[in-house]
Amino acid sequence: MQKTGSNHVGSVMARNIGRMTALMLVATFTAPFAAYYVASGAAVSALEAQLQRSLVLTNRAIATEVERFRYLPLVIGEDARIRALAENERSSAVLDAANLYLQTVVRQAGAAELYVLDNRGVTLAASNFATAESFIGHDYSFRPYFQDAIRNGEGRYYAIGVTTKKPGYFLSSRIDIPGHQPIVVVVKADLQPLEVTWEAAGVQTAIADRWGIVFLSGNPDWKYRPLAPLSREAAERVAAERTYDGTDLAEAKPILPAGVVPPINAADMPALRVDGEGQQLLAKFSAIEPDSWIVLAATSTEDIAKLAGFWALAALIAGLVATGALYFLHQRALLIRMRLRQGEILELKVAERTQDLAREIDMRRRTEDELRRAQEGLIHSEKMAALGRMSTAIVHEVSQPLAALEATLATAGVLAEKDEAAKVGERLLDARALVKRMQRTVKHLKTFGRKGASELEAVDIDTVIRNAIDLAAPRAKALGVVPTVEAQGPAPVITAVGVKLEQVMLNLLLNALDAVEGRPAPSVIVQRTAEAGQVNVTVIDNGTGIAPEHRDRVTEPFFTTKLTGEGLGLGLSIATAIVREYGGEITFAEAPGGGTIATMSMPIDKRSAHPLEAAQ
């Protein structure tokens, strides 16, 4: 009776889990669509916020650039040399003085051009008077900035210059002089440097005039194109004012899709979808007064689909995992119910079968225990193997400084016997420096293979060479070798970790010294050259060289040709990994006449390059 009740409970549990599994399957195939929709909305909102920030920065940059020159015409109009142009009779001396003054102001203020118009719009004096594109004598009365200045006292207008064919922002002020006709002072500001900044940014930015014609843009494909089709009035006004003289606006394709008009209250309007060079863009707008300019900021929506697809896939995977877990529970419940039923039948019919089942369960448990113990043993063995690899690396990298430390302390002992205390102190300082270097080496070996373990710094490559030669000096002296350094030009600077590069350089030097041991007239030369943005440090020895069949394997871990047990085959492997981490490479070649050429190539840090090299 008790077992029958348990069997019933198992059946109910299995049915419930089955229903949950079916519901989970429905949710699994529904969730990706919801996740895609939510992720798309979140990504679009993030892009809109980014575009809004870009618009704020762009508006501030434009306002700052305009404010630099807004009061310049009024200030220039107070100068006596400029006011003298209002006289009816203007001598050549008056005109020359005004021209030279305007030329000087342009050079100091950074404006594109400065010029003065009479009350009819004819240029009297200009900063470019001495050039072939001089404004003097030209009639600019058709320009709105002249008409607004005569009528309202000041004017502003962006257009392509009809004389220079160069675009600029014109700011004008009327100068009233008692007893004389007024004159108009105009400054032309070059806003095109803003385009360079926008082109380097990740957001495509453009500015359109009040008619919707783009005249500044970080995207060259947008320049001198209307946002929407031009009205008849706009086309006539632009043609009459010769705003974009030399451009064919009639053939220009609108930037916005058909039927889409640039929003007037741009800050409150949602972003628009814009086609740009085969990709879909998300665009927002803002307005700049008093010129009624429209600022457009757009960015690619390509990553939105990728991000939404990622979250949809993640939701699908999570749903499948959850469904799989429920299915497993369902199968487990069915198995439990089946076992309960089988147990009831077996208990009633075959008593001995119960013992067999008990033995089978016991055997299964023992097997699982053995498998678990074997798995734990494999994990422990892997840990011990990793510890062994680290220990061999530490021994390899510390052995050379220990040898130098032993030689230094031995020298200190000899000097102590001779009562040369000062020199003993120097040797002890050298010993202490070697101990510190071993500590740094151990620290770097602990973090070897793990990026970000040490902070990058600007490293003088010549300093690295000197330090490595100092470390290898005891070994070189014992062999009767004096390494020669040949450096061309100023010392390049690279971005790396200095101590790690010293490890690399020391390893190359020690390999060269080992190669020349026992050779007649042993020689080790270190050459440093720089070309094409790279610094090359070459170690040349006249030793036995590397066999051709070994040349491609010398950087493999644990590969060594030394038969005395001195090398573990890790030095060049570690050195190659360090150099590659900083974007460099180590290569080996055969030296003329025998020996080996080992070259370490590293990219030069352009930000810290030598001034002469930067100029070239």
Mean pLDDT: 77
CATH class of the domain at 457-603: Alpha Beta
List segments where confidence is low: pLDDT < 50 over at least 5 consecutive residues: 375-394, 447-453, 610-616
Label the structural class: alpha+beta
Query: Biggest sheet, open or closed, and with what strands and sense?
Result: 5 strands, antiparallel
Sheet with the most strands: spatial strand order: 2-1-5-4-3
| DSSP E strands, number | 17
**Principal-axis shape:** flat
Gyration radius from CA atoms, angstroms:
41 Å
Oligomeric composition of the shown chains: single chain
CATH homologous superfamily name of the domain at 457-603?
Histidine kinase-like ATPase, C-terminal domain
Question: Remind me, CATH topology of the domain at 457-603?
Answer: Heat Shock Protein 90
What does this structure look like?
The chain has helices at 2-67, 72-77, 80-83, 92-109, 144-152, 193-200, 232-241, 302-349, 351-417, 421-446, 461-479, 498-516, 571-581, 611-615, and strands at residues 113-117, 123-126, 154-160, 167-175, 183-189, 204-208, 214-217, 272-276, 279-288, 293-300, 457-460, 484-487, 493-496, 524-531, 534-541, 585-590, 596-603. With 616 residues, the chain is an alpha+beta fold. Among the domains are: 79-189, 2-Layer Sandwich (Beta-Lactamase); 203-235 and 251-303, Beta-Lactamase (2-Layer Sandwich), CATH 3.30.450.20; 457-603, Heat Shock Protein 90 (2-Layer Sandwich). The strands form four sheets. A five-stranded antiparallel beta sheet has the order 2-1-5-4-3. Strands 7-6-10-9-8 form a five-stranded antiparallel beta sheet. Strands 12-14-15-17-16 form a five-stranded mixed beta sheet, covered by helices on one side. Strand 1 and strand 2 form a beta hairpin. Helix 9 (351-417) crosses helix 11 and helix 12 (498-516) packs antiparallel against helix 13. The chain crosses the membrane at residues 21-39, 308-329. It is found in: Cell inner membrane; Cell membrane.
